[in-house]
Design a protein that fits this description.
The chain is α/β, with parallel strands linked by helices and 487 residues long. The chain is built from 18 helices and 18 strands. The chain has three domains: 123 residues, NAD(P)-binding Rossmann-like Domain (Rossmann fold, 3-Layer(aba) Sandwich), CATH 3.40.50.720; 206 residues, inorganic pyrophosphatase (n-terminal core); 128 residues, Roll (Diaminopimelate Epimerase, Chain A, domain 1), CATH 3.10.310.30. The chain starts with a strand and ends in a 5-residue tail after the last helix. InterPro entries: DDH_dom, DHH_sf, DHHA1_dom, NAD(P)-bd_dom_sf, Oligoribo/pAp-PDE_c-di-AMP_PDE, RCK_N.
Length: 487
């Protein structure tokens, strides 16, 4: 992609350095000495005032695919945007704005000054950027709080003994099994010997296949057995000491040092376990596996394909096929998506999810972009067009989302599937308006599809460039037909 960076100061140079090699970058710089310095550093530089038509034409504004403005002078920004749009009405424009002016205000000011309607695609203010960066950092610190406390507790226990019994409820499901396996990996990393146990039968064929195919080592034990008594510490996953776990006697409760669960906390729990026990019980999270993924991610512990597959499937089952997801669940799925062994997943024989469907669903989640209450997701190169509809159906279940479009490239065509539950939107008509001229598009009020031959997009120099160009075109046309502004 050809990127025009207007301004070669500290910001412009740092952006150019970050994009160098991956993009065709041209810097426009007014100062002659600075322009020469940039040129000597290996950048393609055009020296001149970028608010003048002649300079922009010299820089190739008509061939540019993105313009990035780095000046904070509002008058220069306004004039330059007008000149850009005079010479290239379609190129996306990204600009920095002072904190006291918004994008709508800027657009209106340009209209008043130059009597022209112009479009500015992206704008960011330093204060907003700093605020978002700080919020992201606070969230990251918050995510690591619980895992840091878990590690602290395990290290305390390590001073007294190196054996940990990990107990699940009597009839463990994939979420319990995967969570126990993940906790075992964490504990073993810190030098513990671990054993995963349960008290009941595992009879469901999918759960038995889950254990066998993923190599999870579990042992069935009985109440009061020696296996329980010989372990100095007990950890409970996906359960709390109640009727769902019958192997523990009241005397065993004093050795419960760790409880990780996502069900409602028992009111009498503080009365029956040691007060120094580590507790991470989150009813707002829909899967214990998601909590364990957060730990593994925070500790940077390598995850084997079998463990990633176990955790992915555990989340899938406990979130009712990904239909009920908290932010923690979503982050866990995104983290696991590239690590899952989809052949193993397919062999577990769940009839509702094939190998490629699972992969496309993971991509749809990971690559989703949200525009107000609309999701657009690019799943890349695929062979199974039908999986697009399943991915769109799933994304439409996310809270606050009313319209979804999922697209991928199959052979030499862009395949598109869309869904809506917004009563004001006829999605078939929207798809026809957005893509009918380029190929075919239509459907019903709530569901529809479109197909576009790649055509000119095939000129892209590589697959990544092709995907970016397709995504920009599909997103712009769909949002325009929906009358939703990109943000």
């Amino acid at each position: 992609m050809r990127v025009l960076i207007l301004g070669g100061g500290a910001l412009g140079r740092s952006i150019a350095e970050a994009l160098k090699g991956e993009f065709d970058v041209v810097i426009v710089e007014k100062d002659e000495i600075r322009a020469r310095t940039l040129e000597e550093s290996g950048f393609h530089v055009v020296q001149g005032d970028f608010s003048y038509t002649a300079t922009l034409l010299k820089a190739g504004i008509e061939k540019s695919e993105l313009v990035v403005m780095t000046t904070m002078n509002v008058d220069t920004i306004k004039k330059t945007i007008y000149v850009i749009r005079t010479n290239n009405k379609d190129v996306p424009i990204m600009t920095v704005l002072p904190d006291d002016i918004g994008l709508d205000e800027l657009t209106e000011s340009i209209k008043e000054s130059f009597e022209a309607d112009v479009k500015v695609d992206y704008a960011i203010s330093p204060r907003t950027a700093l605020k978002n960066a700080l919020i992201d950092m606070v969230k990251q610190i918050g995510e690591k709080k619980n895992v840091n406390l878990l590690v602290k507790k395990l290290l305390e226990l390590k001073n007294e003994g190196d054996s940990l019994l990990i107990a699940m409820h009597d009839n463990p499901d994939p979420d319990s099994l995967a969570s126990a396996a993940a906790l075992s990996v964490i504990a073993q990393t810190l030098g513990f010997k671990t054993k995963i146990v349960h008290g009941g039968e595992i009879t469901h064929h999918e759960n038995r296949a889950f254990i066998n195919l993923l190599g999870i080592d579990v042992t069935r034990i009985s109440r009061g057995s020696y296996e329980i008594r010989r372990y100095p510490f007990i950890a409970l996953v996906d359960c709390q000491p109640n009727g769902n776990i019958t192997i523990l006697e009241s005397l065993d409760y004093e050795r419960i040092k760790i409880i990780i669960d996502h069900h409602q906390i028992l009111q009498h729990l503080p009365d029956i376990i040691p007060e120094d026990a580590f507790l991470d019980i989150r009813p707002e999270v829909n899967s214990a596996s998601s909590i364990l993924v957060e730990y593994l991610r925070g500790l940077n512990i390598p995850i084997s394909p079998s463990l990633a597959t176990a955790l992915f499937y555990g989340i899938y089952v406990d979130t009712k096929r990904f239909s009920k997801l908290s932010p923690v669940d979503l982050k866990a799925i995104e983290f696991l998506a590239g690590k899952v062994d989809y052949e193993l997943l397919d062999k577990i024989e769940h009839p509702d999810i094939s190998t490629e469907t699972a992969e496309i669903l993971a991509r749809a989640i990971m690559h989703r972009k949200i525009y107000k209450n609309v999701i657009i997701s690019n799943v890349g190169f695929i062979t199974n067009r039908d999986a697009l509809a399943e991915a769109a159906d799933f994304l439409l279940r996310l809270e606050g989302i009313t319209t979804v479009l999922v697209f991928g490239i199959v052979d030499d065509k862009i395949e598109i599937s869309a869904r809506t539950r917004d009563v004001r939107v006829n999605i078939g008509a929207v798809l026809k308006e957005a893509f009918g001229e380029l190929g075919s598009g239509g459907g019903h009020a709530r569901a529809g599809g479109a197909r576009i031959h790649l055509g000119i997009f095939k000129l892209a120099k590589d697959k990544n460039s092709l995907l970016r160009l397709v995504e920009e075109a599909v997103t712009e046309r769909f949002l325009e037909a929906l009358k939703v502004k990109e943000s």
